[in-house]
Write a structure and sequence with these properties.
CATH architecture of the largest domain: 3-Layer(aba) Sandwich
CATH topology of the largest domain: Rossmann fold
Mean pLDDT: 88
Number of helices: 9
Distance between the termini: 34 Å
Structural class: alpha+beta
Low-confidence stretches: none
Number of strands: 23
Strand order of the largest sheet: 9-10-11-5-12-13
Radius of gyration: 25 Å
Strand content: 25-35%
Oligomer: single chain
Largest sheet: 6 strands, mixed
Number of domains: 2
Shape: elongated
Length: 360
């Protein structure tokens, strides 16, 4: 188990978290400058915390109160940098063997372990190549092999997919998941791209301005985002409103900014300020008021249409001010059928049961 509770003053923010990581992959997600990489550097021993502690199992790594600091080389922690930091003049097998050589592992044992690790990661055929002769995805595997061969007690990955092009990135995500699924140690993976985090959806820690904004499984973040930032980062619509009363169908009447009214089940939520979340794919669009069973139907004006492969994300203004917006995700065929264009008035419909309401 890895337990971290450091406090570190950075240029614009103060990093202050209290987290415990069990064996398995935890993704640290957040915008640039949120403190993600700094937290990894503290755990690795490359940066000292101002206060707080870092423990791995029963071993104390840092104690800000006493100034105790265990050097990086004695922590049994491997860190894979965004750039992979491979030695360009060394062959793949020599890059992977570098840490073993530093530990003075005998040559025969070194060769055996390197060959086994390269075969495990599917890159044994690249053993005698140099980093400049292989692809970005292959370089990432080499960096992982070099980290895992040391049999670390924790593994840290700082933006491991950022250096890859879009096509390679999609392929390598799945490969990385398969590799890390075999590890039985706490593994922290930092990314600013939520699509990367979705591969490891069991636990996602959202860092914003040095603080934990939300910590949970992907499904929890989608269903109950704790703030507008978390909702927008995960692609969920987020509204702040006032729960006023319940109607005859036991639905809560919620008034949003600009006077927009929506209806949602809100069992256990008292009248007053509330947050409301809605998935974009729960929204249907039509040029006329819909005749279906959706409880909510709002006239909106199209502000922007963003193609996403075989789908389209449509940004809509709910009021004349344009401050209250709604995102719908529809198929490309549906968007073409609507004749979707900026400035067009469409009706957005969604069921009351699609909304998630929580007290603010």
């Amino acid at each position: 188990m890895l337990a971290v509770s450091p406090r570190k003053q950075l240029r614009d923010i103060t990093l202050a978290v209290d987290l415990t990581f069990e064996p398995g992959v935890t993704t640290l997600v957040g915008p640039s400058g949120a403190g993600k990489s700094t937290l990894l550097r503290i755990v690795a021993g490359l940066t000292r915390p101002d206060e707080g502690t870092v423990r791995l199992g029963g071993v104390l790594l840092d104690d800000g109160a006493t100034g105790f600091h265990l050097p990086p080389g004695r922590r049994d922690i491997s860190l894979v940098f965004q750039e992979y930091s491979l030695f360009p003049h060394l062959r793949v097998e020599d890059n992977v063997a570098y840490g073993l050589r530093a530990r003075r592992v005998p040559r025969r044992e070194r060769r055996r372990r390197v060959a086994a690790m390269l075969e495990r990661l599917g890159i044994l055929s690249l053993a005698r190549e140099r980093p400049g002769q292989i692809s970005g995805g292959q370089r990432q595997r080499v960096a992982l092999a070099r980290a895992l061969i040391l049999e670390p007690r924790a593994l840290l990955l700082d933006e491991p997919l950022a250096a890859l092009d879009v096509r390679t990135r999609e392929q390598v995500r799945g490969e990385l998941r398969s590799i890390l699924a075999e590890t039985r140690i706490p593994t922290l993976l930092v990314t600013h791209d939520y699509a990367d985090a979705l591969v490891f959806r069991k636990r996602i820690v959202m860092l914003v301005d040095g603080q934990v904004a939300q910590d949970g499984a992907h499904e929890d973040l989608l269903a109950h985002p704790s703030s507008r930032f978390v909702a927008e980062f995960t692609g969920v619509n987020f509204f702040e409103g006032q729960l006023e009363e319940w109607d005859s169908h036991l639905l809560a009447r919620i008034r949003l900014a600009g006077g927009v009214e929506i209806f949602a089940p809100a069992e256990g939520v008292e009248p007053g300020p509330v947050n409301v979340a809605l998935h974009p794919w729960e929204v249907t669009l039509s040029p006329e008021p819909p005749a279906g069973s959706a409880r909510n139907s709002l006239a909106c004006r199209v502000r922007e249409i963003l193609p996403l492969g075989g789908r389209a994300r449509v940004l809509l203004a709910l009021d004349d001010s344009g401050l209250q917006t709604l995102v719908a995700e529809i198929t490309t065929e549906a968007q073409v059928a609507l004749g979707g264009r900026e400035g067009q008035v469409l009706y957005a419909a969604f069921k009351a049961t699609a909304l998630r309401v929580s007290a603010r």
